[in-house]
Specification:
By secondary structure, the chain is mainly alpha-helical. It has eleven helices and three strands. Strands 2-1-3 form a three-stranded mixed sheet.
């Protein structure tokens, strides 16, 4: 009896990770804010986002050129693709700024799986996980999105993160007077 090796499609590696890192047969390029190009595959983007699915069905300039510039940092775009191909969220867990960036991007581009993963990641972290600026950015984002998607838990996590950094808030020249602490 012969045993066939099965492809691992789960988080953390396997075939999808090889496809992503090998960049074989890529048919599209995503470009970060600082113009770093990431070859990728339309099929993976389609599966995760109706935004990308609609884009690829139209004759827009991105589809014609095979490239799209996104409003993501280089690190954010890499983390986005790690999620798309491998369902990884290791980098955002280590870098709160990237988690906030991905949360906003996922909401904007209708990537519900990533949006929910970032919400869960953010809400599940200790209060001192993010710095003051990230906490304030998360709070402002959660207020903006709360009317649409129910961001109460994210907003609470942002408030707790801000409170955990009270000393930084008092010392911050750019935020001085913005909050009564």
């Amino acid at each position: 009896m012969t045993h066939k090796k099965q492809a691992n499609f789960g988080a953390g590696g396997g075939l999808n990770e090889k496809i992503f890192h090998g960049k074989r047969n890529s048919d599209f390029v995503l470009i970060s804010e600082n113009d770093v190009e990431f070859p990728c595959h339309k099929g993976f983007l389609n599966v995760h986002s109706s935004f990308f699915e609609r884009m690829f069905e139209t004759d827009c300039k991105e589809t014609q050129s095979g490239k799209a510039k996104l409003n993501l940092s280089e690190e954010g775009l890499k983390a986005f693709l790690d999620f798309v191909y491998c369902f990884k969220s290791d980098f955002p867990k280590e870098h709160p700024r990237i988690a906030v960036e991905l949360l906003e991007f996922a909401h904007e581009k209708q990537i519900s799986g990533l949006e929910e993963a970032m919400k869960e990641l953010i809400v599940g972290q200790p209060h001192d996980w993010m710095d003051l600026i990230d906490g304030v950015q998360l709070f402002l984002l959660s207020v903006k999105l709360d009317f649409e998607q129910g961001y109460d838990d994210v907003k609470k996590a942002a408030v707790k993160a801000i409170k955990a950094k009270r000393d930084q808030l008092k010392d911050s020249g750019s935020l001085q007077g913005a909050f009564d602490v």
